[in-house]
Input
Amino acid sequence: MKIARAGTCCALFVIGILALTLLGCGGVSSPSLPTGTLTSTQNPLVAQYSVTSTCGGQAMAEFGTDMSYGRSTAWYPAPGHGSSVSFFVAGMKPSSTYHMRVVFNCFGRLLYGSDQTFTTGPLPTTLALPKIKITRPTPNLSPSPGVELFSLIDSTGTSFLSGFVSDIQGNIIWYYNTGVNSAFPLKPVGDGHFMVNLGYVVNEIDLAGNIIRQIFPAQLNQSLLASGYLFLSVDFITMCLRCQMVIGSFWLKRLRISPTCQDIRAQQVFWGTP
Output
């Protein structure tokens, strides 16, 4: 009789542990997650998805112009049960309605949230928009999948949209409004962030256009002087022109500019050959 009771207690203990595990991951009978919150950002083509995690794992969002979705964001870490996960959804055409749903990878099991809709805003009217023409010299060949990143220089004195991403049909699906300044160069640096040179400042931005960090010429000059160098820059455009006449590479914190000033990467302060 004592053995039977001990076995019963052990079985109940194991069942309790399994129940808590299943509940922590959404439960067997509830494959869908509660709907997250979709909010707009300062970029009218970018949405922010916020959802409460039901377990430790990963989260992402599927999106598209209908409920077949077809596109998805990167996976983002979900720290644990009850934690809040927020990430950006980018890659949408202007003035369009998109369907979205959050997806959780919970201990190898995919859990899907309910469908939501988000309507993007229009492109800015204060900047001239580039005219993109797509040609296919060999119509029977399919183009490679992906998107195109444009980083243009304004040589006409006209304010226009100089930093943007288009799909292979030429539709603008993301941009960074630099106002009267040219976004050159504009380079991705990982985690959905970009480095953009505006001439008077270099910014690291996220997909919504929020400034993560920035560096001004005065800060650069101070770092150079502190390292014993007399090379001074008036602005980053002048620096790029001088940079082409110097042998070696120019490095600074969070910024690397090669002799041709085409490469921006996260590196350390250095002058010469690394």
